[in-house]
Each structure stands twice: as C-alpha cells, then as structure tokens.
Amino acid sequence: MDYINIANSKILYLLAAMVIVFIMFQSVIFLRMAFKRGKEIGLSREKMIEAVRTSAVFAIVPSIPIVISLIAIAPVLGIPFSWMRLSVIGSQSYELIAAGIGAKVMGVENLGDPNYTGEVFANSMWIMTIGIIWGLLLCIFALKRYQNKMKKVAKKDSKWAEILVNALFFGMLSVFLGQPIAKGGLGLVVMLCSAAVMLLLTFIGNKTKQNWINDFALSVSMISGMAFAVLFTSIGIG
What we know:
By secondary structure, the chain is mainly α. 86% of the residues lie in helices and 0% in strands. The protein has ten helices and no strands.
C-alpha cells in the first residue's frame, strides 16, 4: 500500500479527531472557568463577551501561518496527522525537519521519495512525536524554575538577560536557517526573498505606525516565500 493512503486512512482521521475534540473540550472548560472567575472579580457579562469577541478576531491573523503550514505539509504527511500536529502543537519547519530525519535514518533521502514506505512514514511519525514531547514536559517540570532564574538574572543585569534571551532565540532560528544557508540554491534564494518581504512590511508598518501591517507581515512573507518558490522553480532559478 502506498504510504499516502496510510497517511490519509480512516483510523488516523479518527485518532486525530479524538485528540482535537479533547483539546476543544478543554478550551470550553477553561472558558467557563474564566467566565466564573470574571464574575467573582466583578466583570460584567457584556465585557467578558466583548473580550472573547475581540480575542477571536485577533486570533485570526496568527492562525493564517498555521493554515498555510497545513496546506504545505498535508500532501507530504497526510491530512489527519498534519491537522492534529498543527492544531495542538508543532510548526511547519519542525514537522518537516523531524519527518526528514525519520526518513533518513531509514535510508530514504527525501519525503515523498518512491522508497518512502508506510514503515518509513511510521518512523517519521514517531520521531516527530517523541522529539516535541520534551517541550511539554519541560514546561510542566522546569518552566517555573527557569522563569525564576531569568528574573534573578534580569534583576542583577537587565542587559545581560536581554542578550541571553536573544541568543537563545537566534540559536533556535539557526537550526531552521542553517540548512538553506549551507546548501544554497533555491532554499537560500527563497529565504532571502521572504526575509526581504518581511523587512519591507515591518519597515512600512513602523514608519506609518500601522500596527495591522506588522500583524500580517509574517503571513504575507510566508505566502510570498511559497510564491517565489513556485516562480523560481518554473523559470529554473536556484
């Protein structure tokens, strides 16, 4: 059986739906708890409903990159597993890198390769799942301690704390940016073009003081990157 048939099988749809329904149920519980607490501190029902409505509107923009990521990885990893991953935890960059590692350790160079069988797909799924679970466990068992340490560092030297956080952030980015930079070619060209779009929109947003432009900058840069990839591939660049 072709692996994509397994990736889009009914059992995976069922398992993914179970996880997502649980997350939705959890969200409803948290919403009820928030309303209950709001009443306790004297907030009116109208104010709380307005807060929910406003939050829902502002949540649309950050969700656009997630939808784009789902469209991008679903043809490779199937709809249900991609749907579950990006609905709960994960990102396009991490999912594709982890899935690629799962393929390479099985002797398959690329995702979607003719040798990418159901067994290789299962290995990719295991690596993607095991690789990301540590973030959840660290948040449960170590986040509070980490935050307390960072507060102590910030009290002693706020500049050093800022440098440390930025270094951690750029270290994380280097994991995703290192490969296209090292390999060059289409990946590097698309990355530079997307970065240029992002910088241009950020500059315009800051210059005109239109914050909504900054809110859409990431989504537009991602869509632009996909468009550039298609364009450059069709004309043979990279």
